Each structure stands twice: as C-alpha cells, then as structure tokens.
UniProtKB/TrEMBL annotation:
Name of the protein this chain belongs to: CC033 protein
Subcellular location: Membrane
Lineage top rank: taxon: Eukaryota
Organism annotation: Aramus guarauna
Sequence intervals crossing the membrane: none
GO (cellular component) term, any one: extracellular space
Membrane topology recorded in Swiss-Prot or TrEMBL: Single-pass membrane protein
Chief site of localization: membrane
Length: 238
C-alpha cells in the first residue's frame, strides 16, 4: 500500500512538471513586463514566461540570468545582506493551485546591483519599503546564493522607480562594479553610466554621505584630533 501511494505521488509530480513545461512552451506570447517610465531602469524589453516558483537562487536557470529576465516578487525583509524576496510566478488556473501543495517555501536574496550600500542606505530601505510589498527584480548576475538585480517599484500607474538609482540619488551608497555582467559589454556601461549620473546628483546636492560639514565642524574636528590637544585631555584626566 505504501509503495502504491509513493508511486502515485511520484507520478503526479511528474505530470505537474510536464504540464508546467507545456504551459511555458505555449504561453510564449506573454511577457513579464512592468510599466516603465522616465525613472525606470528596465533594459530588457522581453522576458521569458515562467510558471515555476523559485525558492533558491540556484534553482533559477542559467538562461534566465543570461537573458536578464525580470521576475515578480514580494518583499519580506531588508537586511544588511540584501532584500529577502518571495518569488511570485505567473499564475495559471488549476496548475498553480496544485503546484503550491508540492513547492517548498524559501526566499531569494536580492542585492542592488552596482551599489555599495551605506548603513544609512539599509536604514532607508527598511523605512521606505513595506513588508509584502510587490517588486520586480531583473536578473543581472548570480553569486552563490545571492542575485545581483535591478529592483523596480511601481509608483503610480505609468511609472516605475529603480531602487538602485534612487539609493544613489539620495546619497545613501556608492557606485560599485556590476557583478555578473561582462565589464566590456554594452549593457554594463549603459547601466554603469546611469548609476554614475544618479550618484553625481547626490554629490552636487551634498546629500547623504556626500554632505559636507560646516566650517565650524571641520575646525572642531581638527582641534579634537590634534595630538597636543589630546595630550592635554589625558593630563587633565589624570
């Protein structure tokens, strides 16, 4: 009896896998696209339809990363390591409801590609992003268990905001190498220039980490760091 149940379960799982593959093959006209506006980082006009829920970065096919597919997700946590996101696949009647019973839970670790976050940047994300908030993340690279992505938020009906750029515009991080993309590729330099322009805006406005100290603050810091003054303070403490 146990063997029959095991065989039936295995057969059902194989059947679901075939059905999912069939859906992917016959829904190629669909595209996972978000509404993009002037502030969007969207650089891939088309992405492959997928119905499988990814619970680990290693589960995502190599071709998805190579083609910079854009996936939909739901934010759970913001940590110093990145965003913990639940992947939300395309929903297909009947297929999706059955798949949920067999799919394991798990969150994807999504990092803002090309951005070195400052501690204030992490705090800003924790404050601005809401739990269970829907996001889009475009795959650029994969490193171990983390995904290097462009992260998009819908702001209104026809506008998307790229978090990678927004962080830099607020002066809450620095431009870094975009891991996962070839350094000499057209896409790399296209995105790198956009990130540099965002960082330059914060630098010109002295925002965040680029905020200049006032003259009196600079003088005070120089005095407090002076070796003679430090020696006097030690002598006074004795």
């Amino acid at each position: 009896m146990a063997e029959r149940r095991s065989g039936a379960a295995e057969g059902l799982a194989q059947g679901l896998a075939r059905l999912s593959e069939w859906a992917d093959a016959h829904l190629s006209l669909l595209r996972v696209t978000g509404r993009a506006g002037p502030g969007s980082c969207l650089c891939s006009k088309a992405s492959r339809t997928e119905t499988t829920k990814f619970t680990s970065a290693l589960d995502i096919p190599v071709e998805f990363v190579a083609k910079n597919v854009k996936l939909r997700g739901k934010l759970h946590h913001v940590t110093e390591k990145g965003l913990e996101v639940e992947h939300i696949p395309i929903s297909i009647p009947f297929v999706t409801s059955i798949q949920r019973k067999w799919q394991s839970g798990g969150l994807l670790l999504v990092r803002l590609a090309g951005v070195e976050l400052a501690p204030s940047g992490v705090a800003w994300l924790q404050r601005e992003l809401k739990p269970k908030q829907a996001i889009w993340f475009q795959l650029l690279g994969r490193e171990d268990s983390a995904l290097e992505c462009l992260v998009l938020l819908n702001k209104g009906r026809f506008l998307s905001v790229c978090l990678n750029e927004e962080i830099l515009r607020e002066g809450l991080g620095r431009v870094a190498r975009i891991e996962g993309l070839h350094h000499d590729s057209h896409l790399y330099w296209k995105l790198h220039r956009r990130l540099l322009r965002a960082e330059l805006k914060a630098l010109k406005k002295n925002k965040g980490i680029w905020k200049e100290e006032s003259y009196s603050e600079r003088i005070r810091d120089r005095i407090s760091n002076n070796k003679f003054v430090q020696t006097l303070k030690q002598f006074a403490s004795w």
